[in-house]
Design goal:
Length: 463
């Protein structure tokens, strides 16, 4: 396999050690991305303005949409990725487990790591930033056997199989603090210098002679910084679903082999800032904090960034089939697209409940902190719903109600300026999964808008 840069739990893998010994290949910076930003059948490269054939795990800026131009990326107000100047989007098919009873469940992960590798063929070769409007994809979702490509690989952390071109039949045991299945793809880094896209979304780019290193072909003489994606999945929790020595995992495009793994990229960088990072961020550790030309989001800011779904379709939890029409096709022949009843792109999902009949209205999602509570009075029940919380706060004389962590209700009469503005109040209520009751240290806040004012239980004047 090709020698990618791979870091987990702060330690270098064997492949990284090898790559660091290659000439002109040692510099890189590593972009942590929380997430996902969105799990949905969306692909503005292959299926602009339409529902995609299969689900993608998307990270990056919240300007993401079904149709995207560079200007759309710049509308992002947050990103799940660390660098504020990077409003790009990155996506891959998501990983599911097929249980012994035939149902499916998303494996789940906590985002991705995107490596920016300063791979040059000679010390003087210029690496250029991605231009405005640039996009590309790598891999082939229909592959079910090897085509001798070296862009896709998998690593079973804690295992002994090393890197493989397909999903390994290994349970990835916990070892030295590492565990999980890591899906990896290196993106093309050679460009024709003219086209921002191409009909197949691939022809305007090419791989260098060594896939992630070497010479660019004469047809694609311009050299980008090399993108390398890592998505880490905790598969050990599904050990009981193995059938003998056969793993139970399948990607959302119906691929149980991993040969059909693929990656997409839409550029949203501030171009001058990316150029400065390419030229100056050359720490051998790859820590993005050492890249002083980049302003960075905090981890809580990254974790809070989301795009609300626009398709009324279940994508997580236990499913009877993969989202869309993606039956498992094991190969070795290429997968065949399946006819599918179309679903439509609708309005973005909202995470509030209409309680106007009670004389209350939704204010928004607010930040909370364990050592500095936003609201003073707490009530909790495993049957919590939005109306139940509002009724309880009303009975105690409060005019503000906040729901948190699915089953907690917090009451008060004022909310500090600056607390509102969070996004991820997306946890279903413990008593009604169709309603949303905040999130971890996030409050879904409602306010009383009618009725006579009077003092609350704790003596605070109502607002």
């Amino acid at each position: 396999m090709f020698p990618p840069l791979s870091v987990c739990a702060g330690s270098f893998s064997a492949s990284l050690v090898v790559s660091l010994l290659l000439p002109y290949a040692e510099a890189f910076f590593r972009m942590p991305c929380a997430g996902p930003l969105l799990l949905e059948r969306a692909d503005p490269i292959v299926n602009p303005g339409a529902v995609a054939s299969h689900l993608h795990n998307i990270v990056g800026g919240n300007g993401f949409n079904y149709s995207m131009a560079y200007e759309g990326t710049q509308a992002s107000t947050c990103s799940t990725c660390k660098a504020k100047a990077d409003k790009s989007n990155y996506w891959v098919p998501d990983l599911y487990v097929k249980a012994k009873n035939g149902s499916f469940h998303n494996v789940g992960n906590n985002g991705a790591t995107i490596y920016y590798l300063q791979r040059r063929d000679t010390p003087t070769e210029e690496l250029i930033p991605f231009p405005k409007g640039f996009r590309m994809l790598a891999g082939d979702p229909m592959l079910r056997s090897s085509n001798d490509g070296k862009a896709v690989s998998f690593a079973c952390l804690g295992g002994t199989s090393g890197e493989t071109p397909s999903i390994p039949n290994s349970k990835c045991p916990y070892a030295n603090g590492n565990s999980g299945l890591r899906a990896q793809i290196v993106m093309p880094s050679c460009w024709d210098g003219k086209n921002l896209d191409s009909p197949d979304h691939k022809s305007h780019v090419a791989y260098p002679s060594l896939t992630n290193n070497g010479k660019c072909p004469s047809t694609h003489p311009k050299r980008f910084i090399t993108l390398f994606y890592e998505y880490l999945y905790d598969i050990k929790k599904f050990d009981s679903e193995w059938v003998g020595s056969q793993h139970p995992f399948v990607f959302s495009n119906g691929d149980p082999t991993g040969f059909g793994f693929h990656g997409d990229f839409v550029n949203g960088w501030d171009i001058p800032t990316l150029k400065k990072a390419i030229d100056t961020c050359n720490s051998p550790t790859g820590n993005i904090e050492a890249c002083t030309v980049l302003d960075l989001y905090s981890n809580p800011q990254m974790d809070d960034c989301i795009v609300a779904p626009s398709i009324a379709e279940q994508t997580s939890g236990w499913l009877q089939k993969l989202p869309g029409c993606n039956p498992i096709q094991s190969g070795p022949y290429r997968a065949v697209p399946q006819p599918c009843t179309s679903v439509s792109i609708g309005a973005k999902q909202t995470f509030s409940t209409n309680v106007s009949s009670k004389g209350w209205t939704y204010l928004g999602c607010a930040y909370d902190a364990l050592n500095d509570r936003t609201l003073p009075y707490r009530y909790a029940t495993p049957t919590m719903t939005v109306p139940k919380c509002i009724d309880h706060c009303t009975s105690k004389g409060y005019v503000i109600a906040g729901l948190e962590y699915a089953e907690e209700c917090w009451c008060g009469n004022t909310i500090a300026q600056g607390k509102l503005g969070a996004m991820k109040c997306t946890m279903p209520c413990a008593g009604d999964s169709s309603q949303f009751c905040g999130g971890p240290v996030k409050l879904a806040v409602y306010k009383k808008v009618s009725g006579k004012r009077r003092r609350g239980r704790r003596g605070h004047q109502r607002v």
